[in-house]
Design a protein that fits this description.
This protein is mainly α and 580 residues long. The protein is 75% helix and 0% strand. InterPro entries: Na/H_Antiport_NhaC-like_C.
Length: 580
């Protein structure tokens, strides 16, 4: 794969540049895919006969390129995991469509209006919802983004801000949670890195993994920044313009409706207008209104977790659960044993089947709670299903092309080439920072945080452990040093940071589509916040911890740095508002 060299960077670069210039994501992704196909076609032709191969096959590279491109398109759509993501996305879209057409979400938001009186409260609710769905980033993005659009609209929160709140509490939360669908994958990469080092067999991978959570500075700071932005109401950069426009739109809407939101009828306050979906039959009880709005989401989450546990149990087996083994041995239950079991069960479960099962169950419950009393209302329910499916179709096209491009960057070994160029002999104290920046570059270029972790984790872990073994007293007994923990944590942190900035990232695409936001607008408004969190991560996190500053001090310094930065850079969108 080394034959492609710097050319391997061209396809993602073409897609990224065109996405910003043309604001046409589908065209940009297709162009990047075609560029990658041409490189693969010509490279394959040249490899058949060296320099002569380039000359003899040059005339055939266009049809060969189209063949490579079409094969990548077919491979991306026929992949089992991709099909499951498609299925879950469409099922969840249909469920959200039913909830929207019944008016249940709108009625629930009206009831919450007494507790949340402004945009800051609405943003905080959205951020908290992002924390609740902690076990999978896809589920987080689609559930919160799809169901909280009405909240954003009611409080004058722009769709760009909604997409930022959702995107910045999806992968960071899933990456920090000890019990999530990320755990098994991260553990496997970590174990590979430990096995390749001089300390193979002397470090417990899971305990190392748990201890490293505190050293994942960017995810912590990204979540902290979300709540700082939400609670202060301050924004900067392109996001401020989007918030000003959304606020003005909300005020115009309130004026046109002559105070409809503040002076609505008792019936609307109780349960919302009928909207053809039958919410009025719940108008006498607030509990029923919340049930019809949130029961499908709750069932979706419960089924998703249940399938993860069930399939994880089948995969792991009772004999491999540490807490059960401890009980059998007579040593009793242990905290880390219970945590290990929970992580093993969810992390080893079939997350894709869990997503599909959860989405299907949520749709069924939403349909059951809808009002089917009259023919007109039945038509409205089916219209809701159709609307929800239709809303998700553009995301399907973008995801399809994004996966195809990602497959080509894998064949071109884009990440491996970047790693080989940028990874060299370094002072071990700078390793956490360098790994974080390298992870960000790779994830930004390839559009995949998981691919970045697969490339970097074994290399980074084995490198830091071997470098520290040579220093007397450091890791000589297999201890997990702060530098080693920070280096491993920086892989995931850098991968999430690059993912947040990349317009070709699948989670970034999902966030923009699930929130009803223009994709390029989402990327351009989120990037300044991601860059701020990354800068604070380096200045107060990866650099100080490498030079011996305690992780707790680094964490507090990072949060203080974010508060000061937002205070200096940010302004509230409403003129004359009370300053923070």
């Amino acid at each position: 794969m080394e034959q492609y060299g710097w050319l391997s960077l061209l396809p993602p670069l073409v897609a990224i540049v065109l996405a910003f210039v043309t604001r046409r994501v589908l065209v940009s992704l297709a162009a990047g895919g075609l560029c990658g196909a041409m490189i693969l076609a010509v490279g394959g032709s040249a490899s058949d006969g060296g320099a002569e191969g380039w000359g003899s096959r040059a005339l055939w590279f266009l049809p060969d390129s189209m063949g490579v491109f079409m094969n990548a398109i077919w491979t991306s759509v026929s992949d089992h995991s991709h099909l499951m993501v498609f299925a879950f996305t469409m099922l969840l879209g249909a469920m959200v469509g039913v909830l929207e057409i019944t008016g249940a979400m709108r009625a629930s938001m009206l009831r919450l209006a007494g507790r949340v009186s402004d945009s800051r409260g609405g943003q905080t609710i959205i951020a908290v919802m992002g924390l609740v769905v902690f076990f999978d980033d896809y589920a987080n993005t689609l559930l919160v983004g799809g169901t909280m659009q009405s909240t954003a609209d009611r409080y004058g929160i722009s769709r760009a801000k909604l997409a930022y709140l959702v995107d910045s509490t999806a992968a960071p939360v899933a990456g920090l949670a000890i019990v999530s669908t990320w755990v098994a994958t991260e553990l496997s990469y970590l174990e590979a890195g430990i096995a390749a080092s001089d300390l193979a067999g002397s470090i417990n991978a899971f305990e190392f993994f748990v201890q490293s959570v505190a050293y994942r500075f960017y995810p912590w700071l990204a979540i902290g920044l979300v709540f700082i932005i939400a609670l202060t109401g301050r924004d900067f950069g392109p996001m401020r313009r989007e918030e000003l426009a959304a606020l003005e739109k909300m005020r115009d809407s309130q004026n046109d409706s002559q105070g409809d939101l503040g002076d609505s009828s008792k019936e609307e306050r109780a349960g919302g207008r009928d909207n053809g979906g039958g919410v009025d039959r719940w108008s006498r009880g607030g509990v029923q209104v919340f049930a019809i709005a949130f029961a499908p989401i709750l069932v979706c989450l419960l089924v998703l977790i249940g399938v993860l546990v069930t399939t994880g149990w089948s995969e792991v087996g009772a004999e491999n659960l540490r807490s059960l083994s401890d009980r059998v041995d007579g040593s009793g239950w242990t905290f880390w044993g219970l945590v290990y079991d929970a992580g093993n069960l969810l992390g080893s479960g079939d997350s894709y089947w869990a997503l599909v099962a959860g989405g299907g169950a949520g749709l069924v419950v939403a349909l059951m709670l809808a009002d089917w009393g009259t023919a007109a209302r039945r038509v409205r329910v089916f219209q809701g299903v159709f609307n929800g499916l239709q809303q998700m179709l553009p995301a399907m096209g973008v995801l399809w092309l994004a996966w195809a491009l990602s497959g080509m960057t894998e064949q071109l070994d884009t990440g491996g080439f970047l790693s080989s160029v940028l990874t060299d002999r370094l002072d071990v104290r700078w390793l956490p920072t360098c790994v974080f920046l390298l992870g960000g570059v790779i994830a930004f270029s390839t559009g995949t945080s998981w691919g970045t972790m697969a490339i970097l984790t074994p290399i980074a872990v084995s490198l830091v452990l071997d470098m520290q073994v040579s220093q007397e007293g450091l890791a000589a007994a297999g201890e997990a040093t702060p530098i080693a923990l920070a280096t491993f944590g920086s892989v995931l942190a850098g991968a999430i940071f690059g993912d947040h900035c990349s317009p070709i990232s699948d989670t970034t695409v999902l966030s923009s589509r699930a929130c009803g936001c223009d994709h390029v607008t989402h990327v351009s408004t989120q990037m300044p916040y991601a860059m701020l969190a990354a800068a604070v991560c380096v200045v107060t996190g990866t650099v100080p911890v490498g030079f011996g500053v305690p992780v707790g001090v680094c964490f507090l310094a990072g949060m203080v740095g974010l508060v000061i930065s937002v205070r200096l850079l940010g302004r509230r969108p409403s003129a004359g508002a009370e300053e923070f």
